Amino acid sequence: MTPDLFGETAPPGLAYLPGFALAEEAALIGAALGVAAAAPLRVMSTPGGKKMSVAATNCGAAGWVSDARGYRYERRDPLTSLPWPAMPGLFLTLAQAAAAQAGFAGFNPDACLINCYEPGAKMALHQDKDEADLTAPIVSISLGLPAVFLWGGANRSDKPARLPLHSGDVVVWGGATRLNFHGIAPLPSGHHPPLGAARLNLTFRRALRA
DNA sequence: CAGTCTCA
DNA sequence: TTAA
To answer: According to the model, what pLDDT value does residue A5 have?
Structure first.
């Protein structure tokens, strides 16, 4: 456990970078909304047929998709059959800088999943394991309303730590904890000036073989 | 294939 | 909140 400047404690195996992206908050939100203008936010279904509580879209060479056929990465948006929008340069720059700061130099993400949470939306504990390259880390940037990040272990039964995430915070994990279970507790209601009553999460991954 | 969900 |  390493204490940080804001008094929060990063759980083992997780790099916690509070405020790392705060200076670029407005530009990141603008870029994310630009992606959503071309590849609309949509509610995906799990393979079991249940709707997720977040709305999602993607940018980059590959995008994460879930439907009755399963979880996978697709090079094109199933909604428009167009390639996903290009990853904004600012996204790539920040994701690489955060990864480097966390000890993962050379991170070259090709996928950015954008999840939009409205109050009540959540993400149950899960593993990110649909990527072809599990040697690359996961970089997650929070924007808008604060949320509680659930940081579990290698087994679903491991009790997760709870870490508050605010707009501009970045978390990074990889290596030995690359497949750790994680999630987001139900989003409390609130209002964030640039974004309104919502939280956006940008998750960067190397989805295709490096 | 699926627990990125829902309910006990 | 935790287990299943």
So the answer is: 47
